[in-house]
Amino acid sequence: MLTHDAALEWIARWDRQQEGYLPDREERFTALIDAVEALGRPDPVVIDLGCGPGSLSARLLERLPGATVISVDADPLLLGLGRAAYPGLTFVSADLRTGGWTKLLGLERPADAAVSTTALHWISGPDLKGVFAELATVLRPGGLLLNGDHMDTEDATPALSRLEHAVHERQAARVFGEHRPEDWRTWWEAIAADPDLAELNQERTTAGASHHGSESRLLSHHVEALREAGFTEIGTLWQRGNNRLLCAVRG
After folding, report:
1. What are phi and psi of 129, to 5 degrees?
2. I need a labelling partner for 63 at 20 to 30 A (CA). Which of 48, 54, 150, 154 fits?
């Protein structure tokens, strides 16, 4: 049986392996939450897209305890960890690639912000356009999308793109040296070997939650999809190398 303490331990291990790819992960979290706070509402409604086990959602609620944070993901195991660890959050099981996911959110008013971190790049270009188009229907005018992820610019500025990668790689080398945290695959292998997670692992194998298909790794993919969905001002709020926080304002 998955306990609260065990879930917190697994999520701490998740956070550590994520930091192996993102040595500035906490700094990016802080910048993102600063932007939500700057909206000026003590009680914002925030949708966390591809929330995983709820790392970002939990930090949002800690900073803004009056917020309503709705955390959306399609992976039963990650949702199970989040529900056990963070009872104050609302987790919703939904595949963003499937139309109609916003109907599952239970919104009582339009959302003030949608946030995401290291998740939306897994969605292919055509599906990404659908996600943003549907998201726009539940965001208030002036509401924000805040998306922290690796986004490359090699299609538009190849020399700058190479420099962005170099900056990122050098920062990781400074932070970790030869002692990198465990990687994504090793974390999932450990999860699969835990008998207390057998039921959630079984759900995961039948839920179609694994990543597949082409990725949307280019910044231009995201900007184009956002513009088509009716977002107006689109730009980078925070950046280190190719790790950036993209912000878009709903028109």
Report:
1. -60, -40
2. 150
Split at pLDDT 50, 70, 90, the class of 205 is confident
Q: Cβ(24)–Cβ(117) under 8 Å?
A: no
pLDDT tens for each residue of 29-62: 999 999 999 999 999 999 999 999 999 999 999 9
Torsional sign, CA 17, 18, 22, 23: negative
In DSSP notation, 183-203 reads: -HHHHHHHHHT-GGGHHHHHH
Question: What's the number of CA atoms in the CB half-sphere (13 Å) around residue 197?
Answer: 21
Q: Are 28 and 117 in contact (CB under 8 A)?
A: yes
List C-alpha distances in Å: 236 to 157, 180, 191.
Answer: 15, 28, 35
Distance between CA atoms of residues 216 and 151, nearest Å? 8
pLDDT of res. 76: 97
In whole angstroms, give the CA distance from residue 76 to residue 61.
Answer: 22
C-alpha–C-alpha distance, residues 129 and 224, integer Å: 8
Backbone angles phi, psi at 105, to 5 degrees: -80, -20
Task: Summarize pLDDT for 81-127 with one digit per residue, the tens.
Answer: 999 999 999 999 999 999 999 999 999 999 999 999 999 999 999 99
